Hints:
- It is globular, with a radius of gyration of 18 Å.
- The strands form 2 sheets. A 9-stranded parallel beta sheet has the order 5-4-1-11-10-9-8-7-6. Strands 2-3 form a two-stranded antiparallel ribbon.
- 46% of the residues lie in helices and 15% in strands.
- With 306 residues, the chain is of the alpha/beta class.
Amino acid sequence: MKEKFIQEKERFKGPIAYPTTPFKISKGKLIIDEESFRKQIRFLIEHNVPVITPCGGTGEFFSLNVDEWKNLIKISVEEAKGKDIIIMPSVGGGINQAIEMSQYAQEKGCTILQLTMLDPMFGLTEEGIYEYNRVIADSVSIMVMSYKTGTIPMSLETATKICEIENVQAFKDEAGDVTWFRDLMIQTNWEIIGVCGGGEEKAPYYLLAGAKAYTTGVINLIPHLSISLFKAAIEAKWDEVFKIQEKLKPLNRIRSKPGKMIPVIKEALKLLNITDNVNSRPPIVPLTTEEKVMVKSTLKNLDLLD
């Protein structure tokens, strides 16, 4: 066990929120709506969300420049100051950019970061993936959460090797292979914080396989349901877990359509008066009128709107 991280690892559990990045139109350009972003972070903090990841996939990490990213991390840290909340920035992109972001997160007092790797189009090798993780993790002394998706080739051997890096203390699996994930937990002697990247639909099965946390976009809208599902799962109250999953199924069905994961959440946030804008930067496109009606109807069925 890497002793210096024990206390912080104890705090890292439950649902992890991935807030959106709100954009507003100014002089014909889409710029960050800072006040709406603050409102989102405050909403999550007020509802006792344990971990918040600004600038993740739902936060449109791919569309932000470094200065915008730094500003959003700064705002998140400011809002969480004095609260028992973990701010875990998502860092990534080119190696030098990822190192700059990681070191900035550490300077701002963050205790863990998510390492978000994007396929650079010409293909990835497992050796290259390991080196990317190692170099970035070595650039800071805070904890790092590594990340596997269905498009990133990562064998159990490579993942285990990554988890042996001193400050890699968490591992997020978004590939959906629970058996593979369970094997990783066993290979690392259960010392790594396992994280399910599949939202409320997959979280119960990953928690059974050894996960301590799960990522979710739905928590931006209905934090009490996400938190209740986690508590019910760890207490083995499966009837309650399945009821919550059924309740969220219509919303997840809309979000599961290609290109709709982010705009559905943004539309709902505006309808709930948590944010003021629904804009996204390309390649994300707005919802159609019909899709907006579906989102509104779904929120009404969840008793979130009159």
